[in-house]
Amino acid sequence: MSRFLTVAIQHPKRCLLLGLLFILICAAGLHKLVKNTSVDAFIPADHPSILSRDKVRQVFGLQDPLVVSISSADGSIFSPQSLNLLLNLHHQFAALANVRQVKSLVSEAHIQADDSSLQVAPLLSEQISTLRQAEDIGRKAMQMPPFIGTLVAYDQRALALVVELAEQDKADETYQLLLQTVAPFETTSQHIYVAGQGAVGGYLSKYIDTDSRRMQPVVVGTILLLLYLAFRQFKALTGPLVVILASALGAIGTMAWFNVPYYAITSALPVVITAIAVADAIHVLTAYYELKAQHGNWSQRRLVGAAMLDMARPITLTTLTTLAGFIGLSVASIMPPVKYFGLFAALGVLIAWLFTMLVLPALLILLRLPETSIFARRQDNRANLVGKALTRLSLATVRSPGISMTILLLIMLIAAAGAMHLRVDRAQVENFTAGEPIRIAHDHLNHYYAGSAYLDILISTDSAQGLVNSTLLEEVAALQDYLQSMRGVNKTQSILDPLGVLQAQLEGNASVSRFQGDEDSFSQYLLLFESSAKPTDYADKIDNQYQQMLVRAYLNTDLFSEEKRIVETLQAQLPRLFTQQGVSIELAGRVNVDYHWMTRLGDSHFRSIGISMLLVLVFSSLLFRSLSDGLICVAPVAFAILVVYGVMGWQGIFLEPATSMFAAIAIGVGIDFAIHFIERLQLALKHTPSLDEAIKHKFPSAARACFFNGAALACGFATLFVSSLPTLQRFGLMITLACLTSFFAALVMIPLAYRWRLRRSTNRARRLSINW
Fold first, then answer.
1. Any idea which of 120-124, 179-183, 581-585 has the lowest mean pLDDT?
2. Highest mean pLDDT among 149-158, 666-675, 687-696
3. Considering only CA atoms, which of 144, 190, 191, 189 is closest in space to residue 443?
4. pTM of the predicted model as reported, rounded to 2 decimal places
5. Which residue intervals of 376-484 are DSSP H helices?
6. How far apart are CA 678 and CA 685, in angstroms?
7. Which long-range contacts (CB under 8 A, 24 or more apart) does 93-98 make?
8. How many CB atoms lie under 10 A from the CB of residue 296?
9. The Cα angle at residue 230 between residues 228 and 231, in degrees rounded to 5
């Protein structure tokens, strides 16, 4: 290690120039950064749920659409003004780039039949001028059950345009175009809402841009203010600032150079790296200023070299344990955004260590930081106020172990009780605050229409014409009836629904809402329907070989726990509903994709904790050459994670992609406090057998440095509170709480653990002495 440090001490200008060159190279790659705000980013591209969804796209042309709703505040939506607006927007949307087709009352037809004729006429093909015309269109639309809840609101106060996209990857761009298109038509009596999965991605993209401009300056400014309060010199901010820039730009720039997308949760990555990167610099500067106060006559190189040798081992240990936390997060997760978050956070931590070891000492030599009054007390080995207050807390726990243990156990019991209420759950809409237009639009669709979440059931047979089977058709009808009996499913659609409308008209039986009959009548009605309707009227429900059919269920919730209940109940029921040989059933659609990646989130979360905790325990045990010291290191972090789980459980905060990352990060970051305290305590105990004297001698400076380290971490992570994304705000709360709890737990638990160890060693020595 001393040879490694010699490079910076002997060649400071070269180290600084190389460091600045590295920063410039990484910054140059930022223009290549590509955002990916799609929910699909959270699941591997080869996952079965993604393959099933892609099959539906290929066969039926269905993707996650954008939905535009025109809502009337004055009464019925069937007015000349509203219908003419619908016609106008339909044609404008159809002309936009990336729009494959638009479905609304403009594209759909009304079926009317009797014994002698069949009339399939467009509902709305030209501008209308009278209320009577509008009411006639409304009457005809309400005679078509497939339109109710999908194109027409249940209360007849809103009309929808379903915009199918050509390329899902460009959904955010199309969403912005739709917003621009509808903006001139918004009035006090007529509201226009834009929602759908593509809208979610587009809105998240805007959030990321806002967060990037807002959070990074706040976190850097906050940490620099803390550094100034800690060292009372503006020149002292230069080194940490360079370390921050290098680590954050190094991680994000490397992402860009290697074409790794910038996901929604990646917007928290610069904040996390910045908060962590400054920690080691605080300890190095503390050691430097203490030596400067005690040995003012030393040369600058000697001061910097001594400070670095004093801090090299503990900051290397803390870097390794922080790396372990992020590696555990990356290895355990199946979700690409989380895997890459862990990987590039680890890279940022490694870069921070390299710059702290090489560039920071180079800057200290070149800047020749003068002595600061805040460390003047170290000349006569007196502790400053912060260090003294924290040391008193540690001494109080050692002198009153019974009370301390009782308080700790009480906190653990309360936290454990809260943790029992913790659950893995998520609602996509909770990515947005209650007043955001996207959330208002989402709630509007779920309240007035059948729902905005889709569960697709793909029914495939092993031969052409395989669907023309009366038993299979009865089973499909039974499937739709079963789905609509489930809580949360408002509507289902299949080819049987438009055929049911046709059958009701031809037979004069208004009670028929879904096709009923044998395979011959099914073939006849299907042929009649195909000959009179446009291909787009049935292409999204059945293929032209009559081999594959799609049933779509509309859910009015995207809460994972509700989706999980529906999917798992349906999976259990499918073998009972379908008994025909040569028939396969696959679940697809947005609900199925969300179900699969969220189901594995809980497992990967606890697996990442296990991996991170094991790696940290191994590293700390090896570095301290003691399993008991390794366990003592881990104890405060485990306590902090339990406390955070308790808070989440009591407050009803879900374990979701963002909040699930806190534990692995907290393990890697929170253990740093324990390492510094144990390192200092072991050093002091070599010179005195008294634990009280060891704490008094070595804890003040370590406690002060760790306090500002913890404050920098907490304030850095707390800047996530200003994020536009509520999920990142919750993540910021969890990781801030974990860091502060880890610090105070280490301050209390480590002295208690060493008191127990020393007393045990003393008792053992007495027993041996007596036996001898």
1. 120-124
2. 149-158
3. 191
4. 0.81
5. 385-399, 401-419, 437-448, 470-484
6. 10
7. 93/68, 93/161, 93/163, 93/178, 93/181, 96/174, 96/177, 96/178, 96/181, 97/174, 97/177, 98/165, 98/166, 98/167, 98/170, 98/173, 98/174
8. 11
9. 70
Tokens of 485: 């009996």
The secondary element (H helix, E strand) that includes residue 732 is helix 726-771
Written as six digits, the tokens of 127 are: 């501008």
Backbone angles phi, psi at 148, to 5 degrees: -75, 120
High-pLDDT (> 90) share of the chain, %:
34
Cα–Cα dist 123/140, whole Å: 8
Query: Which residues lie closer than 8 Å to 702 by C-beta, 6 or more apart?
Result: 676, 677, 679, 680
Span 345-366, pLDDT tens digits: 999 999 999 999 999 999 999 9
pLDDT band at 626 (very low <50, low <70, confident <90, very high): confident
* Angstrom distances, CA of residue 222 to CA of 78, 214, 237, 466: 56, 13, 12, 67
CA distances from 186 to 179, 190, 399, 517 (A): 10, 6, 70, 47
Q: Is 186 helix (H, G, I), strand (E, B) or coil?
A: coil
Please compute the mean of the pLDDT values over residues 337-344 and round it to a whole number: 90
* DSSP secondary structure letters along 199-222: HHHHHHHHHHHHHHHHHHHHHHHH
Contact 162, 90 (CB under 8 A): no
What is the pLDDT at residue 619?
84
Q: Taking the CA atoms of the chain, what radius of gyration do you get in angstroms?
A: 33
State the Cα–Cα distance between residues 761 and 767, nearest whole angstrom: 10
Residues 271/719, Cβ–Cβ less than 8 Å = yes
Asked whether residue 536 carries a pLDDT value surpassing 70, the answer given is: no
Q: What angle do CA 391, 397, 401 make, to 5 degrees?
A: 160
Cα–Cα distance measured from residue 548 to residue 454, given in angstroms and rounded to the nearest whole number: 18
Residue 378: DSSP 8-state:
G
Angle of the 590-624 helix axis to the 560-577 helix axis, nearest 10: 120
Question: Which two three-digit tokens encode residue 396?
Answer: 């109080």
Cα–Cα distance for residue pair 755/768, rounded to 1 Å: 20
Place of tokens 């009352």: 105
> How distant, in Å, are the alpha carbons of 93, 204, 205, 261, 318 from that of 38?
22, 8, 9, 11, 35
